[in-house]
Write a structure and sequence with these properties.
5-stranded mixed beta sheet, 12 strands, single chain, binds thymidine-5'-triphosphate, alpha+beta, binds magnesium ion
């Protein structure tokens, strides 16, 4: 089975954000650059690129190439904000999104593509989603792996969509300069040049033993890259998050619209999350509610509490609070509750005696559950769920 991997890269990202925020700049040759005579171009709009202006070019040279150039100072915080909006939008398609830099991400599309009538349909939907969320265009590459997807996204900029099919790989790579492959930097490029290798085709034909003699373990890796092979996985950010959180989710047999039912499910999940967190010795300040709609659109909302919690009741109250704030666009097929941002929960001296009492009650309930199994103790609305 061929994988479907997508790579999405924003077009002239910093410049595009500036143009979006200030419509008077739109379509003008524009660079984002630092202050001072010796500053260099961070990025150039496509209008400026038409004059030969490029990233990393000294500003003086850029102004000589294009005297009408507009120079805008760098606003990193703003770009990070827009980046976050874009990543969040991508996450509504699938949790399997790997942000690779401020303006690019890999997306695992192998299973997802079917729902969009294929890989190209998915790529179009992603582009449209990004445009809707940010007002900006991006270029997407689709291929059987990350190496080729990244190559593809750069092949038709701006606003591009490029698919590399397995049968075209050899043709695409044959005359491609080796430095175009992500992971082959200037040092490797010149080392390869000294062996008379300039293109991926030449690299693919070069005896692997000789490459190993020259580059060590990188040798066979280079040979694989030259053939367009790469089996590395899309590593979603949520994997890292998960290590720092405890969560449970449930996919429902039937899509539901009844909020009371949703609250009962969330209560059950919150109790489970609390139990596991306490078992692992955690209490978290952040409670997250995840909702997936019938059409698979998924989103999460969070609340940060003044102090860490691990009692099911507290987690439930926070998650229910989030649910009550959410306007539901359609029927729900999955609900998830998690806590994160660990802090000293139990050690925390409570200002209210009642809280301590509840902790002791909680401990007692946990002990009963340990003896009689999960679900031995139920609060009223959970019992109702079973009926
Ligand atoms: P890129 O994706 O490399 O460039 P880009 O988005 O400006 O243009 P393209 O349409 O070719 O993708 O980088 C993303 C942003 O990162 C870019 O807008 C500015 C910033 N950046 C730097 O700060 N320094 C650099 O050396 C590069 C390459 C980019
Ligand atoms: Mg970019």
């Amino acid at each position: 089975m061929e994988r479907i991997i997508l790579h999405l890269d924003m077009d002239a990202f910093f410049a595009a954000v500036e143009e979006r925020d200030d419509p008077t700049l739109r379509g003008k040759p524009l660079v984002v650059a630092g202050h001072g005579k010796r500053s260099i171009v961070t990025t150039a709009s496509y209008a400026a690129r038409a004059f030969g202006v490029r990233t990393a070019m000294p500003l003086g040279m850029a102004l000589r190439l294009c005297p009408s150039l507009t120079v805008v100072p760098v606003r990193h915080r703003r770009y990070a904000e827009v980046s976050e909006t874009i990543m969040e939008r991508l996450l509504t398609f699938t949790p399997d999104v790997e942000p690779a830099s401020v303006d690019e991400a890999y997306i695992e599309g192998s299973r997802l593509a079917k729902r969009f009538g294929g890989a190209e349909g998915l790529a179009r939907a992603l582009k449209e989603g990004v445009r809707e969320a940010s007002g900006l265009t991006c270029s997407v590459g689709v291929a059987p792996n990350k190496l080729l997807a990244k190559l593809a996204s750069g092949m038709d900029k701006p606003d591009g969509l490029t698919v590399i099919l397995p049968r075209d790989i050899e043709k695409v790579l044959r005359h491609l300069p080796v430095k175009e492959l992500c992971g082959i930097g200037p040092a490797t490029t010149s080392a390869l040049a000294s062996l008379g290798i300039a293109t991926c085709g030449e690299l693919a034909r070069y005896p692997v033993d000789s490459l190993t003699a020259r580059f060590g373990s990188l040798g066979p890796e280079l040979a694989r890259m030259a053939r367009g092979e790469d089996d590395s996985r899309v590593r979603p950010a949520h994997e890292e998050e998960e290590a720092k959180s405890v969560g449970h989710s449930v996919t429902l047999d039937d899509d539901i619209t009844d909020r009371g039912e949703m609250e009962r499910i969330i209560h059950g999940l919150a109790e489970k999350v609390g139990r596991r967190a306490r078992k692992e010795g955690h209490a978290g300040r952040r409670v997250t509610l995840t909702i997936r709609y019938a059409d698979f659109t998924t989103f999460s909302r969070q609340v940060t509490l003044p102090s860490p919690v691990s009692a099911g009741k507290d987690i439930f109250e926070a998650a229910r609070g989030i649910l009550r704030e959410v306007k539901l666009a359609m029927a729900v097929r999955l609900l998830g509750v998690s806590i994160s941002q660990w802090g000293a929960g139990d050690a925390q001296e409570s200002l209210f005696g009642g809280e301590r009492k509840r902790d002791r009650l909680q401990e007692a309930l946990d002990r009963i559950e340990e003896r009689f199994g999960e679900g031995a103790v139920r609060t009223a609305d959970l019992v109702k769920e079973e009926e």
